[in-house]
Design brief:
Distance between the termini: 32 Å
CATH architecture of the largest domain: 3-Layer(aba) Sandwich
Helix content: 25-40%
CATH superfamily of the largest domain: P-loop containing nucleotide triphosphate hydrolases
Radius of gyration: 25 Å
Number of domains: 2
CATH topology of the largest domain: Rossmann fold
Shape: elongated
Strand order of the largest sheet: 5-6-7-3-8-9
Structural class: alpha/beta
CATH class of the largest domain: Alpha Beta
Largest sheet: 6 strands, mixed
């Protein structure tokens, strides 16, 4: 197995949208990895920390054995697309391209790396005149322009004016050159379209890890927790305490009623048990909110299920090719 190029240990950092807490990551070169999560889960804080733009409060991050916060040489070898494009306003886009090429010492032919993204039409434009999507496309092209990158860290790349059909081969090419690739996105569909494997980031911590599909997270009979707002919580609590399906109960008194927290095996069973108890006692149920399974469980299940389908399709295509 390839040795990790990008490694974090107990990494803790926070930006204005969210944070990461004690994060452990180990990514090798070659496979295109995805981290599925929203900025409130800490995805933007992680991207900035890996790029050397946000200093961690605890823990460490190493890319090719170097700290991105302490090594300008390493930072020059990283291709990064951050949550905000923040392009340098040096006049025209063509001047920004020349400026970036000069900083990085890029020797590739002038048009070879941005023509696939179709930004040649943006070259005569003023940087300040670009709309957010256009600016993001230029920022993506600049990230891909890094010659022989140590790592590519791309935050939501398909938010730019580029399709997965166009971007996927470019990422594969970088991977074949030995780069470590990490795509950070809130979209399961984007992750499947661009990447070989994915992990989930949930409330600042890794949920489903790379290489560990989690297709059994949402299954019939998994624990479910419902909050029930009603006019007589004690009466409902008494009835629910006699139901065999109920695993635990708690309640909170409020003005003109209260809230009962009910945990059962399975959301459907839980809802039916609550409805039966309410009918028996004449309690008025004003609202019900499902708290488990919630967003983290749905993220993990979606990632695992879609990744499994992706692998099954690839396997079927390989078998069909071998038989033909």
């Amino acid at each position: 197995m390839n040795q990790p190029v990008l490694r974090t240990h107990a990494l803790t950092a926070r930006d204005e949208q969210g944070g990461i807490y004690g994060l452990e990551l180990a990514l090798p070169a070659g496979p295109v990895g995805a981290l599925l999560g929203t900025p409130s889960d800490g995805s933007s804080a992680l991207a900035k920390t890996l790029a050397g733009l946000l200093r961690p409060t605890m823990g460490s991050v190493l890319i090719a054995g170097k700290n991105p916060h302490q090594s300008p040489q390493l930072r020059r070898s990283l291709g990064v697309l951050m949550p905000d494009a923040n392009l340098a306003d040096v006049g025209y886009v063509r001047e920004l391209i020349a400026f970036a090429r000069g900083l990085r010492g890029t020797e590739a032919p002038r048009h070879s790396w941005y023509e696939p993204l179709g930004i040649d039409s943006l070259a005569p434009r003023q940087v300040a005149s670009l709309n957010p999507r256009e600016a993001r496309t230029v920022a993506l092209a600049l990230a891909l322009a890094v010659a022989s990158p140590t790592a590519l860290i791309l935050f939501d790349p398909l938010a730019a004016d580029v399709t997965a059909h166009t971007l996927r081969p470019l990422l594969k090419e970088k991977a074949e050159q030995g780069a470590c690739l990490l795509v950070i996105t809130p979209s399961v569909q984007d992750a499947i379209a661009l990447c070989d494997d994915m992990a989930t980031l949930e409330r600042g911590r890794i949920g489903r890890a790379l290489g560990q599909p989690d297709v059994d997270v949402l299954v019939p009979g998994m624990p479910a927790e419902l909050r029930v707002w009603c006019d007589h919580p004690r009466r409902l609590l008494s009835a629910l305490s006699l139901a065999a399906e109920v695993k635990s109960l708690s309640w909170t008194e409020m003005h003109e009623g209260g809230m009962v927290l009910v945990r059962c095996s399975g959301a459907e069973s839980c809802a039916k048990t609550i409805a039966k108890a309410a009918l028996q006692t004449g309690v008025e149920v004003r609202a019900i909110q499902q708290t488990i399974p919630g967003t983290p469980e749905v993220y993990a299940a979606s990632a695992g299920i879609m990744l499994a389908k992706h692998h099954q399709a690839a396997y079927a295509a390989t078998v069909a090719e071998e038989r033909s």
